[in-house]
Amino acid sequence: MKGISTAILLFVFLIALNAQSPRSVEDFNFGWKFNLGDTPEAKSVDFNDECWRVLNLPHDWSIEQNYTTQNTSGSTGFLPTGIGWYRKTFIVPEESKDKLTFIEFDGIYHHSEVWLNGHFLGKRPYGYSVFGYELTPYLKYGTENTVVVKVDHSNYADSRWYTGSGIYRNVRLITTSKAYVPQFGAWVETPEVSSKKAVVKTFAVIKSTSKQKLTVRVSIKDKSGKVVGSSSQRAVVSGIDTLALPVNVFKPKLWDIAHTDMYTANVQVYAGSKWLDDYQVEFGVRTFRFDANKGFFLNGKNLKLKGVCLHHDAGAVGGVFIKDVWKRRLQGLKDIGVNAIRMSHNPADPGLLKLCDVMGFVVINEALDEWRKNKDKWITSRFAKDMRPALKTGYGDIYEEWAEQDVKDMVRSSRNHPSIIMWSMGNEIEWTYPYYYKMEQSNQGLGNQVLVEETGDGRDELKETAEEIKRWIKEVDTTRYVTAGGVLPKAGNMTGYFDVPDVMGYNYRAVNYDEDHKNYPNRFIYGSENWGTYQEWKDAIDRDFVAGIFIWTGIAYLGESGPFPWKGLEISLMDFAGFYTPRGHFYKTLWNDEPSIYVATKHAKKAQWIFEDGKWVDNRVRFWLDKWLFEDVEPTWNYEKGDEVFVEVYSNSPEVELFVNGESYGVKSPNDFEDHIVKYLVPYHEGEIKAIGKDGDKETCVYSLKTAKWVSKIKLNADRKTMKANGYDVVHVEAELTNGNGDLVPDKKMQLVFEIEGEGVLIGVDNGWDRNVQPHKSNQIVTHNGKALLLIQSTQKAGEIKIIAKAGSLVSNEILVATE
């Protein structure tokens, strides 16, 4: 009898392989209408939206507008917010009457409300949550339906960084049977992994609108689509049930940062021979662990985390997630040697997490920047202390009602990503409890007295909240570590807050590593936020017990800045346009084994370093922000005769030698400099400055700059020659000002005018500068450091895109991109 049942199941499975899936997943991004302004009557079915703008999602209305100081803030990048409404009309076919239909949003910023055919579906205030609604009760079949979304971002200073405004992440329409796997309803755990075998346990939540005998089958497929294991289970489901389906996968291919092998768990639901649902999740097989003395291990191998913190905006395209834009950005980080990313300080877009899976980064996905209490927001300049108490708003306003659901949904929606190794509860929450700062500054032994004096009963709400959030996370996922970014370790040790996370992150507190490792020998420690200096990295590599660091930041981000026109912070490895900064070139020499060298210069009178009494001295007037800043050197050899020039050379070669027009200015080693940056003071002579990396008598790498003062050409370079005509693919066109020899002219600023013909849409221009407040949706841009960036997205029509740039009488080379 058992053999017959197995044979029947196999027969049903083979039929299903060739049948059309009962689950429809429709891209719901195209053909929306939008109006900026509060139009509450728009939720009505018979509202006339003919004059509204037609657009495709994802969409961020803030980045489309001009930078301004009117009703904006430095904290959110000097871009307007407001209230916006979206409407989309669609038809569900008659044959779907006996099915269920859902809409899923990957994120709306923020305070969204959704209606279908005039019926209110729900609200979601947190702008980074993935969520959905069932549409079935209010659908009309075979005729028009209208979904309406209100987005209320009227508070323009609700965050410490740029958020964007609108339906800025993807939307899907799901249709399936009445016995089905709900949103987030299937996940995979790998409790046993070896080179010989992995136990892959798939969990499936099954919902049914009526009592049914069901068979649930899971098939595990490798990246080629080959089935490498399967199992099935029968259940009588009335309402909701959760099934566990273990499968043995032999000789598994492990996911790691160098080989990102993935598997797919295909969950199918049957009632007899009727196929009811088909839900797929991608996952990876790997092991990871922290050791209190040796740091982090991935698949049994010790791995020092070379991490960066990332905000979610992408410069000229704002908060919207565009796969190709982020792929270019992540590749730039990977080429530097980055292997880890902390999503700061909110859950990342699902598409960004998938890129991390595919490209090979380990990830900390972070829930919140604020818990029960809000942090200060600023208007013009944090550094001018231009705060307004009325703008002390944020997640604390909704914590009590929404925090448990938001935290759990972060975990549910992204727990299948093999890249994620930790869930972060939050960041620097101590600043919202002033007694923590007083405890940090108190004399030894008086900290608990301060706590009692400040709270009355010695009860620490911060620690209790951390324990609450950790419990929520563990209720959903026990396979990963829980962490937090802490900034006041002395106080946190006194209250016990630093003992709550499984792994404790230290923000800018490397000075506490040794003492805390001694006093808390079982604590897992890493640098969760770090200045981008050599010392921060050295503090980690000199200590096996420090798992790694996360530089603040990997890529420049909008907001947390001021005064105008300082729109964002470029204290990063890459600027707003994705070009390497001097710090990026420097870290490439630290984090990349391939021989690397880079030269940057500055007029000696403007340099922060001076050569005095036979040694290099940092001559800056110290300001606390300087800890994040890097010497403002430039990629230029354009000076005047008689000038003295300060030169920095970054290299991972044992020694470097500097030449000016062939004349040597000596051999030096990065190890002879405390900051690992080789420094020279040389006279300017028109021609070439060149640095050579050396390993003994062997030349390992070369970098040079040439005098180039006059622009004679505009050079365009595209990162691809073909795109899919899908309305998503993007080509990045980099523009450079060059002389007749093709050398970059970094000191000239010219306004470029781009001309675009064919099946492409301009979605952004930028020059990478943190004080660039030119409109991003324009075809014009003034260069910075001789460069600019143009982003063109394909339409849904095949053809060709022609791109040229002009500046006065200069005309660039022509770029042709085919769309297929």
Structure explained in plain terms:
Keywords: Glycosidase, Hydrolase, Signal. By secondary structure, this protein is mainly beta. It folds into five domains: 24-176, Jelly Rolls; 180-283, Immunoglobulins (Immunoglobulin-like, Sandwich), CATH 2.60.40; 298-564, TIM Barrel, CATH 3.20.20.80; 593-706, Immunoglobulins (Immunoglobulin-like), CATH 2.60.40.10; 713-819, Sandwich (Immunoglobulin-like), CATH 2.60.40. 15% of the residues lie in helices and 38% in strands. The strands form eleven sheets. The chain has an eight-stranded parallel β-barrel, surrounded by four helices. Strands 3-2-4-9-6-7 form a six-stranded antiparallel beta sheet, with no helix packed on it. Strands 11, 12, 13, 14, 15 and 16 form a six-stranded antiparallel beta sheet that branches. Strand 18 and strand 19 form a beta hairpin. 47% of the residues are buried.
